[in-house]
Amino acid sequence: MNIKTKNQREEEILRELYKAGGSCRVSFLAKELGVTLETIRRNLKTLEDRQIVRKVHGGVHLVEDILEPTFESRLDKKVHAKEVLAKAVAETISDGDSVFLDIGSTTAYVAMALQNHSNLFVVTNSVFVASTLSTRNNNRVFMAGGELRPHDGGAFGVEAQDLIRRLNVRFAIFSVGAINADTGFMLHDLQEANLANIAMENAQVRIIVADGEKLGKRAPVALQNTSRIDLLITDRDPPKGIRTMLEENEIDLIVADGG
What we know:
Layout: H1 8-19, E1 23-25, H2 26-33, H3 37-49, E2 53-56, E3 59-62, H4 71-75, H5 79-92, E4 98-101, H6 105-113, E5 121-124, H7 127-133, E6 140-143, H8 158-166, E7 169-175, E8 178-180, E9 184-187, H9 190-201, E10 203-209, E11 221-222, E12 231-234, H10 240-248, E13 252-255
Parallel strand pairs: 4-5, 4-7, 5-6, 7-10, 10-12, 12-13
Antiparallel strand pairs: 1-3, 2-3, 8-9, 9-11
Helix pairs in contact: 2-3, 5-6, 6-7, 8-9
């Protein structure tokens, strides 16, 4: 899998850093993960070499654009851009279509933009998406099972993966944390990337939706096989390097106009 984290220990370190708000003592990580300081320092060195974390005075913190805000705070940011993007996505989907929607805040706006559609077949691991599109307009909504994460209302366990593996959809809509010319599409969470890779396998058309601020940024986890993506919808002309990456992977581009 094409990810910036090299092993499970590095993913555990990043997860603890997220939980701690982006920074903590090295000794805290060693205690929480039950390993020696030497082991933690060795893993931090590899993460620092890839500019994912930075070590300072016995502590460590995530590089600024690596740390992802909470779902609630993301819902309240870039509202107009997300509404423009959501409208563009909704215009590609017809009544009666089948669609997978992930847990991203931009995808949440897509769900709201689909509220006037009818007879949709919706697969999601987001409680927000499920509650937005269920019990209306004769939609059928399949909510992936398992424990919901408290910070974003997403399900990612074995039960969620099993359901998404079993259901085939026409469209799979994904939000991402960053888009980079060298790496492609990136997320802040390994569980999200793993589930996205499964959802991609069972979709006919795979769409990334991301506002222009994500262009040229970095995040810890890269989506597998960039060439599987069919379409990027954004609200800003991508720089040359990203356009080249899209062309090389035969990914179509829509720049949504909010006018």
